[in-house]
Specification:
The protein is of the alpha/beta class and 533 residues long. The chain is 30% helix and 22% strand. The protein contains 18 helices and 23 strands. A hairpin with a 6-residue loop joins strand 12 and strand 13 (180-186). It is globular. The structure holds zinc ion (ZN). Zinc ion is lined by residues 66, 68, 226, 430, 433.
């Protein structure tokens, strides 16, 4: 007898053998049957929970392939600057936060975006010093590749006009006075980060709970957490308590690879709720911070081609670490944004694939944002997964061309080019860099309408992809990316009972309305983890 039956739905299964169904039966957290309402209805008994979908649309639960889960939760609990659209509002909100927090407590996170200020300018410590004399401030841009510190935080970090920039980092200094402006980029952020007190276990638990609720409300039943060790203890506690309502597949920093290899931990350790993936590294920075690493100069900053991340030094270390990880049975996921960063990473993967014994590696490149046209074929040949975030395309699409010009923009967020070459896409959000909202992600991939509505036909419209392909990248191909395509990402017998119920059939509405669709219910392992009121 089934535990749960969903009837009278429009179910898109992401199973080529049976793309549509009306009903699903669940038993023991897994899918027992898929079929018509008449067929599946017969599997119910006195104890079966029956949900009449009344024509609602159902997909496999979304898999977000790139999140910083605990950070996302912490950002839900801290200052919100993502939508601070003016300098005045930015300053006001920071001042308000300082008044709310006890003296001496740090103001962190923020996710600000100076690209929405008019004129576009980087914030400076002078903007906020007067409002925050007693609170160290170290707030990040939404891409996490630069922070603004107030004078107090710089002092605690020992950053002065004399401080040299560490490799892979930049301390922005005023060209007139030589004094630090408060902006620290990439590796330079650590100068202040290391003075920030560690998150307490209680804060981390609250953050994880907030993140789980946020995921469930958006139909996300699995995430790939690329943020490192932070949170693993909390996830284990939550799992123990039966409260881990999102499945977490997690990476640790590539800098810890030697320890992991020594422990002989391999990809797949854990269970279907909490599972170990491998290592995550960085080749470069971000486009918004002008630290993404390109072959040619930034169009708006001649002579500047971006930065290699500190993890690329000393030279050769990235290859060494990836090789060690691969030989130990760990999956590698590496952040590469600029076209040259992607080429550098492809070189490394190519070399290791050629030299090591053949293995089902499923190497990943995170973001894979700007691709030199000749590199698509290399992605395909090496079976490298492009782990991409469609929301970034409609966000950065507002200003990316200013930074890289029209030619490079043609293969920026090049989703259709990847598909044309037979490269597998794994969709994600990069939350909290972008909202963890797959419906916005689908909307972005299918329409490429930038957030400022200035490209109604789609920015670089030839890179729009079909809805079917976009759904696949958020479900079955994301499952493939975590070696789980035989248990999730599709609605078929034997698979995990992870579903999202939506109020509209995405295939019949206008693409531009996808972002308005509401999650009605989220089911993970046969249990309802979110229900709209
Ligand atoms: Zn990320």
């Amino acid at each position: 007898m089934a535990d749960l039956i969903l009837l009278n739905g429009k179910i898109w299964t992401v199973d080529a053998a049976r793309p549509w169904a009306e009903a699903v039966a669940v038993r023991g957290g897994r899918i027992a049957a898929v079929g018509t309402t008449a067929e599946v209805g017969r599997l119910g008994g006195a104890e079966t929970q029956v949900i009449d979908l009344r024509g609602a649309f159902v997909l496999p639960g979304f898999i977000d392939s790139h999140v910083h889960f605990l950070n996302g939760g912490l950002s839900l609990l801290s200052i919100q600057l993502r939508d601070a659209r003016t300098k005045a509002e930015f300053i006001d909100r920071i001042g308000a936060k300082a008044r709310e927090l006890p003296r001496g407590e740090w103001i962190l996170n923020g996710d600000w975006d100076h690209q929405q200020f008019d004129p576009v300018e980087l914030p400076r410590r002078e903007w906020i010093d007067a409002a925050t004399p007693d609170h160290p401030v170290c707030i990040n841009r939404l891409d996490g590749h630069m922070v603004l510190c107030n004078s107090l935080a710089l002092k605690l970090g020992g950053v002065t006009r004399e401080t040299p920039a560490p490799p892979g980092g930049e301390i922005v200094k005023d060209p007139a006075t030589g004094e630090p402006t408060g902006i620290l980029k990439d590796a330079a952020m650590d100068l202040v980060f290391r003075k920030v007190p560690e998150t307490t276990p209680a804060q981390a638990r609250r953050a994880a709970e907030a993140a789980l609720a946020y995921a469930a409300a958006r139909g996300v039943t699995s995430v790939h957490d690329v943020s490192g060790e932070a949170g693993i203890d909390i996830y284990q506690d939550l799992r123990q308590d039966g409260r881990l309502t999102t499945r977490i597949y997690f990476y640790v920093p590539i800098t810890t690879v030697d320890e992991i290899v020594r422990l002989k931990l391999k990809n797949g350790f854990g269970d279907e709720t909490l599972r170990f993936a491998g290592v995550k590294g960085f080749v470069d920075g971000s486009l918004g911070s002008a630290t993404a690493y390109f072959f040619e100069s930034y169009t708006d900053e001649p002579g500047k081609t971006g930065l290699l991340n500190g993890e690329m030094f000393p030279q050769g270390i990235m290859e060494k670490r990836i090789r060690a990880a691969d030989r130990a049975g760990l999956q590698a996921a590496v952040h590469a944004i600029g076209d040259r960063a992607n080429a550098v990473m492809l070189d490394i993967y190519e070399k290791i694939s050629a030299e090591d014994p053949p293995r089902d590696q499923r190497f990943r490149i995170e973001h894979a944002q700007h691709i030199r046209p000749s590199d698509f074929a290399r992605f395909a040949r090496l079976g490298i997964i492009a782990s991409v975030q469609p929301y970034h395309a409609i966000d950065d699409g507002r200003w990316a061309e200013k930074k890289i010009g029209p030619q490079r923009a043609r293969t920026t967020y090049p989703f259709q080019s990847f598909l044309d070459h037979g490269v597998r896409l794994a969709f994600g959000s990069d939350w909290p860099v972008a909202p963890m909202d797959p419906l916005w992600g689908l909307y972005a991939a299918v329409t490429r309408r930038t957030l400022d509505e200035r490209h109604p036909g789609g920015w670089v419209s030839e890179q729009k992809i079909s809805l079917e392909a976009a759904i696949r990248a958020y479900t079955l191909d994301a499952a493939y990316t975590e070696f789980a395509e035989t248990v999730k990402g599709s609605i078929r017998p034997g698979f995990l009972a992870d579903f999202v119920v939506l109020d509209k059939n995405l295939f019949v509405i206008k693409p531009e309305d996808i972002r308005l669709v509401k999650v009605v219910r989220t089911i993970c392992g046969g249990k309802t983890v979110f229900q709209a009121r």
